[in-house]
Amino acid sequence: xxxxxxxxxxxxxxxxxxxxxxxxxxxxxxxxxxxxxxxxxxxxxxxxxxxxxxxxxxxxxxxxxxxxxxxxxxxxxxxxxxxxxxxxxxxxxxxxxxxxxxxxxxxxxxxxxxxxxxxxxxxxxxxxxxxxxxxxxxxxxxxxxxxxxxxxxxxxxxxxxxxxxxxxxxxxxxxxxxxxxxxxxxxxxxxxxxxxxxxxxxxxxxxxxxxxxxxxxxxxxxxxxxxxxxxxxxxxxxxxxxxxxxxxxxxxxxxxxxxxxxxxxxxxxxxxxxxxxxxxxxxxxxxxxxxxxxxxxxxxxxxxxxxxxxxxxxxxxxxxx
Length: 321
Fold this sequence. Notes:
Blueprint: H1 6-10, H2 18-32, H3 42-59, H4 62-71, H5 99-105, E1 129-135, H6 137-142, E2 144-155, E3 164-165, E4 168-169, E5 178-189, E6 198-201, E7 217-223, E8 230-232, E9 235-242, H7 244-249, E10 251-257, E11 260-266, E12 275-278, E13 284-286, E14 289-290, E15 293-299, H8 307-318
Parallel strand pairs: 1-7, 9-15
Antiparallel strand pairs: 2-5, 3-4, 6-7, 8-9, 10-11, 12-15, 13-14
Helix pairs in contact: 2-3
């Protein structure tokens, strides 16, 4: 007989709380319950389901857990007496414990392998959920209310969120107590919201069973690619097109930004690739501060030159420019 690591079976740490153990059990039981598997996988799922229930049987019972922790991997060197723990729940078709369990606790005090009292627990508060919010750069700069359609969890109409109908798992929701539905939500966007920012919508997450509160919905902003602007953190980069004369002699140039037009000074001798910084015209950095706008110069040469322009360029070439 091999030592069974019940903590590893449930995927929890040794100092896990009772609630952590219960949540882990509920998640794994939903995932591996034989009623939710195809015929080809029922037998394998049944064995896994037994193992999960056995681990929960021990770790959810304070007396059994203490005894299990004390004996640990050296259990074969210890003397075991049958436990007198009370029987809870009902035995179903997945009854039977491993030899390790029988040797450690004896045959008494077994709950049996069905949906244990962790599934029959009191209603839980709805969980928080996270979704991606694709956003154009124009909307990010403008802020304000935006109506979106999103797929969100809803209590299963067939089982009311319990995950069960009668003595078996709910076939409508697969035992998870939730289904998905499309919902229209109005989101208030702060101005200049940046990529990756999470917006919290209270009570718009997974519904709570019974009268419990729903969880929250967290929308993670995903800025979409823009044909004219490039985002780097809270900074925004764009190109500014200069004529050869403006680049050579200096002057002013107009920037067409997401907040309107503005003019910047171009020093004489500006070369292609030179970057001009306009502070405070980028996306939000938090705390009321904003990133910067960077304009990268490029020189525009007309495809077709007038006769006069051609002669002037020829004069420049002759002058060694």
